[in-house]
Fold this sequence. Notes:
It is a single chain. It contains four helices and no strands. It is mainly alpha-helical. The protein folds into two domains: about 25-70; about 70-125, no CATH class. α1 (about 25-40) packs across α2. The chain is rod-shaped. It starts with about 25 loop residues before the first helix and ends in a 7-residue tail after the last helix.
Amino acid sequence: MVRTPKVSRAKARKDDxxxxxxxxxxxxxxxxxxxxxxxxxxxxxxxxxxxxxxxxTRELAGEPKxxxxxxxxxxxxxxxxxxxxxAEKMTARDDLLTRVGERLDKLSEPERRTFLDRILGRGxxxx
Length: 127
């Protein structure tokens, strides 16, 4: 009996790179990675490649474990937005304090009139 070699049913690769299989990844991790790749607009392989490269680079650079990558542009944009929000709140508070001061001035106006002016119904500027 002549045996014929088994033909692999796996897809032929377009290049000579070795295929890498990663075993032991939990279904939850696979689902999370798939969702993250999709939200980043990347393939799962591209996303995993980027995340692993970033983590390996941080590890080799001696950065503390678990430290997230720093995205300076996102930090600056966040600070800019917070400062703009604070400036808007401060302007609104200043406007409110101005209106309160004006009302207090009007409320204290009758006390500036003399007793005779109040009896005669005259304002402080009608003397």
